[in-house]
Amino acid sequence: SPMRNLNSNIPVFLFAIFIIYISFTLLFLAFVYEARDKENTTTDSHIVSQKSLKIKPNQDVIVSVKTSSVYYSTRLKYILETWYRLASDKIYFVSDKPDPDIPIDLGNHFLYTDCSSSHQRAPLACKLTAELELFYRAKSNWSCHFDDDNYVNMPNLLNFLSDKSPNRPHYFGKVSVAKNIKVNYRNESISFSFGTGGAGFCLSQFVVEKLSELAMRNVTVLTLSNELGLTDDVTLGFIICEISFSIDHNF
Questions:
Q1: Of 10, 189, 214, 233, which is most buried by a Cβ count within 10 Å?
Q2: Distance CA 37, CA 225 (A)
């Protein structure tokens, strides 16, 4: 009968309503967390380490490793046991909070920030902005970023950079997409490429100085990421390739 058919469809209807409710709830929570992350980040210095940040100036290479407190006992541990030992004087870690269980005392080579530990866009952009702050202060010939799930052959990296000029606009990395990214910026459609953060990238002193000048005008990875909705590595590529200057693409 029609009434029986209606009764049999009620559980399906209620289940569909439940799925829609859950979906909208998750979307709402994602929006709230993203908005909170934006509010909790500023364009001031994001490095809040208790130990004074003393960096030997004019080094040949400085390496920043972006990590998170949730990976101290896993990813960070294995870096400290392996490739960190190959160039411990050049490697710094940028994270979201200190941890007394780190197996060795990294001194001021371990920097924590006011950035969130979540893997959302804004906290990651916040951490990369803090890494760039480190580069600005170091004034090294070369500044390189890696993630905490990378293994870096430091002798090979140093050898690769040794015959390159830090006074030229070099941006070494790996493209992870087949086509250029297109974004609309100030009523203009812009196409550009970028070096994916997951594979690591290196910037010449020339590039870092240009980024530092932009940061003084409040043009940072964090501010542009919030404005354009792009991830941290894509935003950095956009700033380097399209805003700061015409640059050699070395991908």
A1: 233
A2: 12
**Torsion of the alpha carbons at 28, 30, 32 and 37, rounded to the nearest 10:** -170
Instruction: Give the pair of three-digit tokens for residue 213.
Output: 């000048």
Mean pLDDT of 71-77: 90
Torsions phi, psi for 17 (to 5 deg): -60, -40
Are 96 and 113 in contact by the 8 Å Cβ rule? The answer is: yes
Nearest 10 degrees: Cα torsion 44, 62, 72, 96: 0
- pLDDT tens for 116-146 read 888 889 989 999 999 999 999 899 999 999 9
Q: Which residues form the catalytic set?
A: 233
Q: What is the pTM of this model?
A: 0.77
Q: Is the dihedral of CA 78, 79, 84, 89 positive or negative?
A: negative
